Amino acid sequence: MPEASPRVVVTGLGAVTPVGGTAAETRAALLAGRSGIVALEDDWAQALPVRMAGRVSVDVASLLSTPEYKRMDRCGHLALIAAREAWAQAGRPQADPERLAVVIGSGYGGLDTTLEQNRTLDASGPRRVSPHTLTRIMTNAPAAWVSIDVGAKGGARTPVSACASGAEAISQAADMIRAGAADVVIAGGVDSCVNGLIISGFAQIRALSTRNQDPQSASRPFDRDRDGFVLAEGAAVLVLEREDHARARGAEILGVVAGSAVTSDAVDIVAADPAMQRRVMEKAIAAAGLAAGDIGLVHAHATSTPVGDRLEAEAIKAVLGNQVPVTSTKSLTGHLLGGAGALGAVVLIQALKTGSVPGTGNLDAPDDGIDLNLLRGTVEGRPGRAGLANAFGFGGHSTALVITES
Known about the structure:
Family: Belongs to the thiolase-like superfamily. Beta-ketoacyl-ACP synthases family.
Strand order of the largest sheet: 5-4-6-7-1-8-15-14-9-10-12
Keywords: Acyltransferase, Transferase
Number of strands: 15
Protein name: 3-oxoacyl-[acyl-carrier-protein] synthase II
InterPro entries: Beta-ketoacyl_synthase, Ketoacyl_synth_AS, Ketoacyl_synth_C, Ketoacyl_synth_N, PKS_Beta-ketoAc_synthase_dom, Thiolase-like
Structural class: alpha/beta
Distance between the termini: 26 Å
Domain Ketosynthase family 3 (KS3): 5-405
Shape: globular
């Protein structure tokens, strides 16, 4: 008989989000129902149709060396800070460098640097363009910097699958360990593009909320008055490890990536295919060796768009029924784009381990067409041994992660 694949365990968590500078701070804020959505006071934002976003509040420069700060885009800053937190919690595991890998997904990479340096070029000419421009704008830069930081020589990969990037990174990392290609993988997602171009682009397709007068109530997943998502920045990172490797060194096991699945709709560049949303959940549950009835909690992708939330709700109900508890913390953090799926995994792991589940904020009146067991406030009491985290992105990218208790 073939040898069974090793279990993939989680030994470290890190996060930098609009509600907290660490994974623990983020969890505390979510459980307290604190929003990180703020009005944009920048001059460049005042003429925009949307003037709010979720911004990381920590002083990034104070957490990095001066050379690190200057050589990286903000996207790289956030990924490195979150990765260092996760790596420290994991106990900085000793591993053969060629069996230590990094997978950090991003939807847009160093877009802020691209815009900034293009303005410099136009205003001051080519000699004023930073020599760090190219290495700052590379979408693979966050993964590369993290690999340099820990000495990982087993690969530094970058899934670019829009808002599914972070979740797909975790799925790829788990696959690497199961296939015997790595013992330890640092995996997650990041994006930082709170700028006029991205806000204007999303506003033009009517994807963003326009509740500028009340930013903290703007993100309303599943609520009947939702009118779009709120753009945010941030990073979330996990340390994944082969179970026997983690137990041999006495590491605390926070959870298990029991199964995952990645699909593509192959239908439309923007519109989602609900059939494939159902299929990716079914495949992830089957990959975990579980049945639908084993899932006790869902962290939904649910961004707060009128169409997107309803399609996902229908898919969840078709696969899991309407009794399993469902939450979406984008109501408080906003939408981290490439970092969103990884943050959903962090939230799910914390909930399964502690038994405290943050509910969906701003859910005053659930949409009549959404028939799910939606969590509003924080719920105490273990949601079961297994949970599901969804992540969907433009281009028809879908990823589902099944996390279980250790």
